[in-house]
């Protein structure tokens, strides 16, 4: 440790400067706002009288339309009922717009004609504007400049809104740097180099930790973006609910069509079988009548034979007639057997058809269950029925068809609802994509800003270290020079003292020799 007051380093001129005066209420607190405005406008500050409006194409029609759109969009975003027309607007719309924008900038005007010019002068407006512009704002000569000023103020208000909405990260970072600079300077002027080095290492470590935390947040945001992109890709590749419902609808419609075709085919078979059955019943009835007639004729013939006398001729004739009757009986039995075989075949065919109808009715009942039409709609075959409705157990046209029609209408309504839902999902997907893109841009901006801040602070730290090293080197050189000069001085002093001592020794020896000689001579 150095002694108190010895070897104390003098502060730099940059630290010895007098701080600026504290702004008072008369300055309208423009100190912090000027920095924001310089960032927003990217122009150096100057007074209102300079002609810098040449950089802004205020007379260009495209610029004017773009400025009007920006102003109207800003007013609409804050639920304002004011809007500026593309043509020359009215004086009321212009004054109301100016009052609204000045209020958003926290400069509520008492008298617009006076406060407006004070505000734009304090804000260093780059566009020249006459003081008579507000008297006739719709004038074609003054409107372009006034529109440029309003557009410029709206841009400042939008930037201030963005600063208010964004998280205040830079303020804490600036406070940390300010405390670091203050503590480093206090240690520096007190000559405590170890504390300066410890403070530098702590600040660098904090910056590294902050950078690491920011990188972790960026990685988390990237992972979130990746997950959202995966969800977006899944929504894009997978079939939509509408497509699934349409596919189910097409399957159900195909089932209904098959069901209708089966019912029509069954109805046709039933009609054909009923016709064949009626024909067979008529033929059977005719055979029964013919048999009854033959039996009656036989009885009548027996009676006639019993009543008549029998001779050889009659016996021969009766024998022939009996043989003819036997032949007719044989033919009738053959025909009856043939009809019985046909009847058996017909019954077998009817049995097969009933089995087919049972299988088809089971499929139809299963289709009805899949459609969830209710338990009241079921086909129950009845082999004893005489009509299609009695055979099937249900009338299709009066019972099932209205339900299927209403079900089809419900499917159409559900399809429309799902279509609207799909449109809403598509809009949400577009909004999510927009948000993802905005977050991606924000992450890139934060990353670039972090890199720039880190590089700037690192460069500043390097420059400060180099300056401190040079200062220490200069002090070391000065100390070495002073030591060397003191050494030379001490060497010259020692030589001078040696010369004086030798001279004194010589003079003492001479005096001693003289006194000794005098004593010897006196003796």
UniProtKB/TrEMBL annotation:
UniProt-recorded name of the protein: Kinetochore protein NDC80
Chain coiled-coil ranges: 204-335
Stretch list, region Disordered: 1-29
Quaternary structure (record): Component of the NDC80 complex.
Keyword Cell division appears in the UniProt entry: yes
Stored Pfam families: Ndc80_HEC
Keywords for this protein: Cell cycle, Cell division, Centromere, Chromosome, Coiled coil, Kinetochore, Mitosis, Nucleus
Function: Acts as a component of the essential kinetochore-associated NDC80 complex, which is required for chromosome segregation and spindle checkpoint activity.
Primary localization class, coarse: nucleus
Source organism per UniProt: Actinidia rufa
